[in-house]
Amino acid sequence: MSEFTGLKALVTGGASGIGRATAALLAERGAQVAVLDLDPTQVPEPLRAWRADVTDDASVRAAVQEAAGALGGLDILVNNAGVGAQGTVEDNTDDEWRHVFDVNVLGMVRTARACLPHLRRSAHAAIVNTCSVAATAGLPQRALYSATKGAVYSLTLAMAADHVREGIRVTCVNPGTVDTPWIGRLLGAAPDPAAERAALEARQPTGRLVSAAEVAAAIAYLASPLAGATTGTALAVDGGMQGLRPRPA
Ligand code: NAD
């Protein structure tokens, strides 16, 4: 028996990186887990996966219905699917702004809307949104991405207020730079990947990137009944990026 025995969880963006580590950890700890992803082909057993595009409301509603039906309900939503964007406000087009907001913010709204009727029937309902240190830290070259995560942070607080009396907790994790395929792609596109990696590592007071497993552990805590008194707040998993200034020698 573990804290997740009998609980059913849905993880968006669960085919890769933080979502994949979270889905695997929840399953290892006894939850039944459904993954929703644009490309669910790489999702390992015993996770069950459904294809869904969080920018498409009909696709989200259909996948959530099917997953909740297959699992026999839903207790936990890990709202994690997201995409990155680099640059200042002069670098991204209006279409890029619309698309990244569509995935990172509206995607979480659509998925929450589809899951809420199921979560209301749970005795241990929790939503955990994957936010970012970018929501509050003022990172250079991340204007669009940071704005989406600022919105996710505010959405987390507002949803926590709206649903607290229904017994649904809403929290978020604020990771720093996490070693996932996403960061692999970013480094791959850099003129000097080793120098870029060193710069990302140096930006974090711990001097290293965060692992996906470390973020998954924080999400699992927030999603678990052990966090029953925790709602409307963010847990930083950022190597001290937000709290420690300047980096200790
Ligand atoms: P990743 O690229 O490894 O995984 C993202 C997953 O989301 C992929 O499986 C992808 O297919 C899925 N996805 C993307 N768009 C989708 C859509 N429209 N519909 C359904 N699924 C979609 O990335 P990651 O690093 O694991 O990031 C996961 C989350 O963590 C994101 O919300 C990201 O903003 C956040 N985050 C990441 C970092 C980091 O440094 N990696 C830091 C802070 C926050």
Automatic annotation (TrEMBL):
Tagged with keyword Oxidoreductase: yes
Entry-linked Pfam families: adh_short_C2
Residues in coiled coil: none
Signal peptide location: none
Gene3D superfamilies per the UniProt record, alphabetical: NAD(P)-binding Rossmann-like Domain
Keyword tags: Oxidoreductase
CDD domains membership: SDR_c
Family that this chain belongs to: Belongs to the short-chain dehydrogenases/reductases (SDR) family.
Protein name: Oxidoreductase
